[in-house]
Amino acid sequence: MKIWGITRRWILNSLGVILLVLSTLIICMSLVVQGYVYNGIQQTINGRSGELTNVFADYGKKTAVEFSTAARSYVENSPSKEMMEMMVLSSAGRILVTSTGFPPDQSQVMPDFQEALGNDDGYGTWKGQLSSGEKVMAVTRVIRNENGSALGSIRYVVSLEQADQQIFTIVGALMLLGLLVIFLVVLSSSYFIKSIVDPIKQISVTAKRIAQGDFNARIQNRQDDEIGELCETINKMAVELGTSEKMKNDFISSVSHELRTPLTAIKGWAETLQGLEDTDQDMYEKGMGVIIRESERLSGIVEELLDFSRMQNGRMTLMMDKIDILAELGEAVYMFTDRAQAEGKFLVYEEPAMLSPVLGDINRLRQVFVNIIDNALKYTSEGDTVSVTAEQKDGKIIVVIGDTGCGISPQDLPNVKKKFYKANQTVRGSGIGLALADEIMQLHDGRLDLESQEGVGTVVTITIPTLRQVSSATKPIPAVEERNPEQNG
Question: What's the predicted TM-score (pTM) here?
Answer without folding.
Answer: 0.40
